User: Which sequence fits this backbone?
């Protein structure tokens, strides 16, 4: 289970005065990658939220190898590590226009019932998509 | 009707590669100033939202005079321009540690009923606070 | 002088708890639109910065008509208002997937010599491109 | 070696439509905590950068236990894990107004010579401060 995003251009406002992308922004790139993937699988996360299912990040980690600069373009490769039960585990690679690996990372997402404010199992329609 | 925030330190991640604060962040400083003010007047905006009253920004403008740098400290002076009816008009001045004016700005906020998705008049409890 | 960006998808992290895009982010959309335009005209702003020419925003304004939501796609239409001398004036329209106007705005950018920390005139190579 | 920041209020724009702080922002809180600490030790990171020493994050991880909401106040407890050689290792705890642990995390920072674009050892003046 693997997906590669379309090419994304680094935005000016994503840099900081170190002159490359602020380290917190890579987690936003991971996020858009996994949501773009869900969307490609006809899973609308927006719709899931309307039905009261939230998917908060409960764990995240990243190793930075080399920076992304303003104007660079990159792709995110997302992998679903295992078929979800209570959590979804994704791993990520960001690769720039020269096929250089920028960083690798990992996030664990939980399922949360908005009403009950309690963790819940992975909804069946998601399990089916992933199997 | 005027309020001055406590001193705020510029955060590293608020800069961009121009080596000063990204221009969009000043609107976040304006926002925290008006919310800090409401809070000091015992108006909880968080509570207002729970009761279904949103206050979206419908208009904003800013003139930048000189930049804020990482490590600078600043205060925001907020003024309520007139007693609200359908909208709240605030003006702002950001002033750094040397009493230099960094920028001046203006925002207009509307009242929105979250349920009806429709504009509404300024709630009475707010009018009373402002009078 | 007018340019329309390619279609852009609203990112999750660009929303706030009002459940639509935070008002400060539209200025980032304006920014990426004018930089995408420059890039299409073979003007590399990254290169300009390396040569010590900065283009800070000195004035900005916006009128919000209706919000952008997570998952919406939009285009930014940028117009250069007049041939630049000391400043560049752009105006903007953001238009969503249903051709609804989301907001209109305006920014004025100056030219700044990084070395001298002083305003400068519009560089000739830019003037030529714009004429 | 341990430091606790002063109390910080969650800003509205730091939330997303999940109605609590976006997961990427906690890394910004970690950042301001370690920089506030350096500043308290009379180490100006702004000055270090002017002298060409950058401290990029090369590794980061976080475990989220419970969310921070708009209006919450929190402190960050930072610990320096060991006396630095080539890298600085900090660990973090964010604790809210009710002494609840919000999240724990870890970052590794390297030293980078801006001129040579190469890793460097921890500067002596920093080692002395930490010993």
Assistant:
């Amino acid at each position: 289970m693997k997906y590669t995003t379309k090419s994304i251009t680094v935005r000016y406002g994503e840099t900081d005065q170190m002159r490359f992308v602020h380290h917190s922004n890579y987690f936003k790139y991971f996020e858009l990658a996994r949501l773009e993937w869900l969307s490609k699988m006809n899973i609308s996360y927006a719709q899931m939220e309307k039905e009261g299912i939230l998917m908060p990040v409960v764990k995240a980690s990243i190793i930075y190898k080399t920076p992304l600069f303003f104007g660079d373009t990159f792709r995110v490769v997302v992998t679903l590590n295992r078929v979800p039960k209570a959590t979804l585990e994704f791993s990520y690679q960001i690769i720039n226009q020269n096929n250089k690996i920028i960083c690798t990372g990992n996030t664990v997402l939980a399922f949360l019932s908005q009403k009950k404010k309690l963790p819940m199992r992975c909804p069946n329609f998601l399990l089916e998509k992933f199997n």
Remarks:
- Chain A is about 20% helix and 35% strand.
- Chain A touches chain C through 16 residues (CB under 8 Å).
- The mean pLDDT of chain A is 94.
- The longest strand of chain A covers residues 101-113.
